[in-house]
Design brief:
The chain is an alpha/beta fold. It is 25% helix and 23% strand. It has three domains: 2-233, 4-Layer Sandwich (Purple Acid Phosphatase, chain A, domain 2), CATH 3.60.21.10; 239-260 and 279-354, Translation Initiation Factor IF3 (2-Layer Sandwich); 359-463, no CATH class. The protein has helices at residues 19-38, 58-73, 94-100, 148-151, 158-162, 216-219, 291-302, 329-332, 349-352, 359-362, 365-374, 378-381, 385-398, 457-463, and strands at residues 2-6, 43-47, 78-81, 105-106, 108-110, 119-125, 128-135, 138-143, 152-153, 156-157, 169-173, 202-206, 212-214, 225-227, 241-245, 253-255, 261-267, 270-276, 281-287, 310-318, 339-347.
């Protein structure tokens, strides 16, 4: 039995608002599917986030159909679950469309039963069926992305209850704490290792965008846990190349080809990584103590970046009066580099000498949650706008419970709108941003956050006229 395990394709994404990135994400998906078909797999798994949004554009749907036709023509079934990016509460989603076209088979909880060559289901209650895939004797179980709140309800472990006594493959789109180290989910995991149902021969995971495996000898579970990572580079920490040029360095330090991207081909439940070719992605950090130093270092570094690359250049150091990023664009304007962007972590002396307040001291918990919602890329914000508006409405229509006004100690995870009830959709989840430019490194204050004497001004302003 041989299968492919792909996850986090994010089809439809135009990273950095660059149309060529749409093509890159599509190309990576096509390569993964082509390589799977060529390897003669018995089936293919897509463990969530096939699409970047739950309502992909007609063009994205057309491209997905075209690629998924390749395994269909060979009679290779594709089993899929929805991830946090592409799940929906709507009755009909793009996944239903693909399923209707016979291109994929979804598994998990459904309102309708399924029965066929590759699917089976069991009635749980009225309008609730557990659907799984089957290939020969092997069962492919799974569940679309859920929040921790939905999966672990006090003493009830929903996953264990659903998959009790089941065997085969379990496909999930969740961050497991044991494998989340050094990822955006390190402190925001959905499940602890000890909460996973035991008994499966392979845990086909998605959500964490870097490749990770935990063997049964490490976890005590019956099969390996595996994240193939995303087939394309989705953020700066997945860069293919790193260049560091600090004030101590005589010349820039280059670290090449770290993080290969791709997916797994799994034979007898042993995953083998298969690389997918990606565009070079450079993460560059240049440090200097004057604008002239930064400029000459950027000019030097520019010669090390290939033309087809993406380069994210972070400027660091202490420069009197600070810098304007626009003053650096001319250095690369004629370089021919496919896409570059500058970020600043430069501080002026004035900032350094100032006592700064922490976010916790300035904002209440609710205001910080609001800021989290607003901290997404403007382009992506519109995709979750209706959910964001209903989240806001919920607060200001019903009035605010008194206890919600008391700031709690910094929560590890933002309270998501969805967590107020299982049937709410949510804004696209974003990995936490890197540290804010200009913000001093400071150990977080241990003392409890003082309760503000006056109601927070922002919230009071939004509530004006309400009881
Ligand atoms: Mn993802």
């Amino acid at each position: 039995m041989k299968f492919a395990h792909i996850a986090d394709v994010h089809l439809g994404r135009e990273q950095f608002n660059q149309p060529f990135r749409y093509e890159d994400y599509l190309r990576a998906f096509r390569e993964a599917i082509e390589k799977s078909v060529r390897a003669n797999v018995d089936f293919i798994l897509i463990a969530g986030d096939l699409f970047h949004v739950s309502r992909p554009s007609p063009r994205t749907i057309r491209d997905a159909v075209e690629v998924l036709e390749l395994p269909r023509r060979k009679g290779i079934p594709v089993f899929a679950i929805e991830g946090n990016h592409d799940k929906t509460i709507r009755e009909t989603s793009v996944f239903d469309l693909l399923e209707h076209l016979g291109l994929i088979y979804t598994v998990g909880l459904k309102r309708e039963p399924r029965r066929g060559e590759f699917q089976e289901s069991r009635k749980l209650s009225e309008n609730r069926y557990l659907v799984w895939g089957k290939v020969g004797d092997l069962e492919i179980h799974g569940l679309r992305h859920h929040t921790r709140w939905q999966l672990i309800r006090g003493d009830v472990n929903v996953l264990r209850a659903l998959f009790k006594g089941k065997r085969g493959i379990l496909m999930l789109h969740q961050a497991i704490d044991y494998l989340a180290k050094d990822t955006p989910y390190q402190d925001a995991f959905d499940l602890r290792l000890s909460e996973l149902p035991d008994g499966f021969s392979y845990y086909a995971l998605g959500h964490i965008h870097v490749r990770r495996i935990a063997e049964p000898s490490q976890t005590g579970l019956s099969g390996p846990l595996a994240y193939p990572g995303s087939p394309e580079r989705t953020e700066i920490r997945e860069a293919s190349h790193i260049i560091r040029y600090s004030t101590r360095d005589k010349k820039p330090k280059v670290i090449e080809n770290r993080e290969a991207k791709g997916f797994y081909i799994v034979e007898d439940f042993v995953p083998e990584f298969v690389e997918v070719e990606t565009r070079p992605f450079y993460s560059i950090r240049v440090e200097g103590n004057s604008k002239a130093e930064l400029r000459s270092k950027v000019a030097e570094v520019a010669n090390l970046i290939p033309k087809n690359a993406i380069a994210v250049i972070t400027l660091e150091g202490t420069v009197k009066g600070g810098i304007a990023l626009a003053e650096f664009n001319d250095l690369l304007r004629n370089s021919g580099i496919r896409y570059y962007t500058f970020r600043s972590r430069v501080v002026g002396e004035a900032v350094l000498s100032q006592e700064r307040l922490s976010e916790e001291e300035l904002f209440t918990e609710w205001e910080r949650e609001l800021l989290m919602h607003l901290r997404v890329e403007p382009k992506e914000f519109s995709e979750g706008l209706s959910e964001f508006v209903s989240w806001l409405m919920e607060r200001y229509e019903k009035g605010i419970p008194a206890k919600a006004m008391v700031p709690k100690k910094a929560p590890e995870r933002k309270a998501e709108p969805e967590e107020k009830g299982p049937q709410k959709a949510k804004a696209p989840e974003k990995p936490p941003k890197e540290k804010k430019p200009g913000k001093k490194e400071k150990t977080p204050k241990k003392k409890p956050v003082p309760k503000p004497k006056n109601p927070p001004s922002l919230d009071a302003w939004l509530r004006r006229g309400k009881p």
